[in-house]
Amino acid sequence: MREFDWPRESWADDGSMTIYNANTGAVTAAAKPGHIGPVMDVQWNPQRHLIASVHANTIFWMPPATPAA
Fold this sequence. Notes:
Elements: E1 17-20, E2 27-31, E3 41-45, E4 50-54, E5 58-61
Antiparallel strand pairs: 1-2, 3-4, 4-5
Protein name: Anaphase-promoting complex subunit 4 WD40 domain-containing protein
Organism: Aphanomyces astaci
InterPro entries: WD40/YVTN_repeat-like_dom_sf
């Protein structure tokens, strides 16, 4: 188990999504708003490199294979 100095949950009211490196806190990927409201839930499949986010609809995201600079 790891401990972090920041909350593990975060959200944005604009429907955007940001993925952070759990070890460093650095941003590894970001998605522009795709929902018409806040993201209510996120699930990811590490074997397929796929993320699903939910508001009133479901959007499937494929973050880049390499971390953002």
